[in-house]
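Severity: low
Component: inverse-folding endpoint
Summary: output formatting inconsistent between runs
Steps to reproduce: submit the following structure tokens with default settings.
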């Protein structure tokens, strides 16, 4: 609900959709344990990999695409380290 109050127009909500996804995974993963936590971490990680792949394929700035993610997170730091690689 905070997100809906923070961004009132549809355009703002679409522009900050990545923030909403980040907040969702951050809160849900922190509240779960066991298999469900492992699955949610896997889901988040593959989504981040796909964001990086899509950004590379479309020539978009990966730093901008991952702006809501923690750059010290292992998967995020690995993706950012490969942002200038020649091949997709």
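Observed output (run 2 of 3):
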């Amino acid at each position: 609900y905070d997100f809906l109050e923070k961004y009132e127009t549809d355009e703002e909500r679409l522009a900050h959709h990545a923030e909403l996804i980040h907040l969702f995974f951050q809160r849900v993963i922190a509240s779960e344990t066991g298999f469900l936590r492992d699955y949610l971490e896997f889901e988040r990680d593959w989504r981040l990999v796909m964001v990086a792949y899509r950004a590379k394929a479309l020539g978009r700035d990966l730093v901008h695409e991952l702006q809501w993610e923690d750059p010290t997170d292992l998967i995020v730091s690995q993706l950012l380290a490969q942002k200038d690689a020649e091949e997709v």
